[in-house]
Amino acid sequence: MKIFIDGKLYGERDAKISVFDHGLLYGDGVFEGIRAYHGRVFKLKEHIERLFYSAKAILLEIPMTAEQVSAAVLETCRANKIRDGYIRLVVTRGVGTLGLNPKSCGRPSVIIIVGKIQLYPQELYEHGMAIATVPTARNLHSAVNPAIKSLNYLNNILAKIEANNAGVEEAVMLNAEGFVAECTGDNLFIVKKGQLLTPPLSAGALYGITRQTVIELALESGVKVSETNLTRYDLFTADECFLTGTGAEIMPVIKIDARVIGAGKPGPLTRRLVEDYHAFTKTTGEPI
Ligand code: PMP
Q1: 173 lies in some domain
Q2: Distance between first and last Cα of the chain
Q3: For position 251, what pLDDT does the model report?
Q4: pTM of the model
Q5: Residue 252 domain-assigned (yes or no)
Q6: Scanning 2, 68, 69, 126, which has the fewest C-beta atoms within 10 Å of its C-beta?
Q7: 83 and 55 within one domain
C-alpha cells in the first residue's frame, strides 16, 4: 500500500508522522472519508469542498489548492490500483511544541490513505440494525461545531462506546435540547406516511454527503423530503428508519431503544433508496 504524505508516496512501513504533530497531541486537524466505486471517486468535489470548509472553520490553512488535493487523491488511488475502496484524507495542524498553541506548528500535513472499509456485517444490511440513544449529547454549535469534520471525534467515540455497552452497534445522538442530531458516523432518516424526514443540520448533524445524495434521489423519484426536528417519539413511531454515511452507505434500522420500527425489517422505501443509491454510484464520480 502506498500512502501520500505531503507530496510523496511512501510504503506502509515508512508512512510516519511526528509524535509532535498537533493532530496527534490535540486532535487538531480535519479529515474526510471518501469512497471509490467502479474506478471513480464518488462525490470528490463535495468532499474536498467540505474539507476546505472544515479547515477554514478551525483557521487551518491547507498548503495545497483544492485542485491539487483532488489530483493527489486520484494519484494515490492510481498508485494503489484502486477501483473500489475507501479513501481517508487527513490534514493535521503539523509539527509543533508540547503547548497547544497552533502558532508553534510549522506546516500542516496532508495525508491520503487508500484502503477498504466494511463498517458493519453484511447481514445487517439485509436484515436491519438495532440502535439506541445514548447519554452523551452531540457537541453544541457554540462548542466544536458538529459541521466541522475535525480529528477530534471523542464526542462520537464516547457515544459509540455507550451504544456498544448497551448491546447495539450504533448510537443515536441527541442534541442538548433533546432533539435527534445524528449517529456517531452517519446521518439518520425516518419514513412516515411515505414522506422522508431527517433532522435539519441546525440540530447538530454533519453536512452529510450521502444524506444530500439520498435527499436528491428521493426528490427525483417524487418522494417528499422534510428537514425537521425529530424527537425519540418520532423515531419510535416511524414506519421506516435508515442511516446514511460514506462508510456505512445506507443501513436499514429495525429497532430503536427496544422499540421495533415498522414491520421490523427493512422497509420498501429504504430498500428502493438502497437500490437507487448503488445504481447512482455506478454512473457518477471522478475517473481514477
Ligand atoms: N455524521 C458524522 C458524525 C460523520 O462522521 C459522517 C461521516 N462518516 C456522517 C455523518 C456521514 O457523512 P457522509 O455521508 O458525508 O459520509
Answers
A1: yes
A2: 17
A3: 98
A4: 0.97
A5: yes
A6: 126
A7: yes
φ and ψ of 195, to 5 deg: -105, 145
Cα 166 to the center of its chain, rounded Å: 22
How many angstroms separate the CA atoms of 106 and 223, rounded? 50
Cα 260 to ligand 1 centroid, rounded to whole Å: 25
- Look at the chain and report how many structural domains it folds into: 2
All cell numbers assigned to 117: 472499509
Residues with CB under 6 A from ligand 1: 33, 156, 182, 185-187, 206, 208-211, 244-247
In this predicted model, what pLDDT tens digit does every residue of 186-196 receive, in sequence order?
999 999 999 99
Q: How many residues does the chain have?
A: 288
Percent of the chain exceeding pLDDT 90 equals: 99
Q: Is 149 part of the annotated catalytic residue set?
A: yes
Confidence bin at 147 (pLDDT 50/70/90): very high
pLDDT tens profile 27-71: 999 999 999 999 999 999 999 999 999 999 999 999 999 999 999
C-alpha cell at 161: 462506546
How far are the Cα atoms of 53, 62, 126, 155 from residue 59, in angstroms, in the given order?
10, 9, 42, 21
